[in-house]
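Section handout, structural biology tutorial.
Before the tutorial, make sure you can parse a SMILES string by hand: atoms, branches in parentheses, ring closures as digits. In the record below the ligand is pyridoxal-5'-phosphate, and the chain has 397 residues. In the tutorial you will relate the predicted structure tokens back to the input. Do not try to memorize them.
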Amino acid sequence: MSSPRQDDIDAIAKAELDQMAAGNVLWRKRVLEGPSDSWVTVDGKKVLMLCSNNYLNLANNPELKLEAIKALAEYGVGSGAVRVISGTMKIHVQLEEELARFKEAQATITFQSGFATNLGVIPTLIGEGDVAVSDELNHGSIIDGIRMSKAERRVYGHCDMESLKEALEGASSFRRVLIITDAVFSMDGDIAPIPEIVKLAEAYASITYVDDAHGEGVLGDLGRGVVNHFRLQGRVDVEMGTFSKAFGCVGGYVAGSKVLCDYLFNKVRPFLLSGSHPPAVAAANLAAVRYVQEHPELFVTLWRNTAYFKEGLGKLGFDTGRSQTPITPVIVGDSGKAQALAQGLFEEGAFVTPIVYPMVTKDRARVRTIVTAGHTQADLDFALSKFERVGRKLGIV
Ligand SMILES: *Cc1c(COP(=O)(O)O)cnc(C)c1O
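Predicted structure of the complex:
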């Protein structure tokens, strides 16, 4: 017999789940039975992976795995503590130093995840009496980070510089103004106009914070990210990124001035109060940062694959929106249709995820695809032929 309270919670949860199911917005649990790679086994079926963030195909890279194993043997499975007590190991420091060189920054500091970075760093930089000026399509971790602070939030139109300017003009009474944006928008794959944002920030004496989760390893020389891409080194105050996408592992970070990183080391709550990365994770991240600098051909392949796949989808008549990066949405409108397209493709051997409300508006449901440096031309031709077949069957093209 369960307690009445348990029954209540289950009843509430069930009602909400039923409502989500009716709206076609439930997640379906797909289980990978091996590593994340170009071809994967999912729920017993071999399928082409088109929905990972594994841009450079590093998640199952043998050299990175070897470095992780070596660190595991040398340092053990856990770090033993939070970073500020006794959980800072040499491997954590080596990663931060190598990353600073890679990012052309004075210093870096790593966190458990990108989400934890935004959740912890934003409330450290702004509080009561301050304002966050935020793009309307920013990632949920930015929105939650702003909520965690006691600052006010002003939302500007997506990449709309007139709207940003208006927001900044209305913000003069605040103590501190933080302009915050995704570098590459995760649902549409478009790039924020960082040069214009930096100019406005300089004109209005504001701080700039760029979340480069999808630009890292993808944009700039050797994947140094959006700031290098636009040649804005030293002009963006806080560069935030993640190891969970192109770098193939897990972890978040900030690159910036030495004093900023010292400050975050002493103040960010998820950093102070939550265990640090296992040594194998730090070692894999370090190996990834080194690996990308030694393998420029990864970027050539990633961008060649991106151009080929986008052009192929366009020729077939699919709407790929405003993407400028390897994130290529295939926009179908209604959430039921997005689910049907994803399901049809899965049955044909191509793995994509439906993206539906509330991640995108109700009329802009889509499947999102990301090709990687690991895909071959034959893989992409396979994917395009399946999109053509299922798209025709569902009357999308
Ligand atoms: C994925 C993502 C994050 C979160 O990064 P994790 O390291 O996976 O927690 C933050 N911001 C943006 C824009 C992202 O796309």
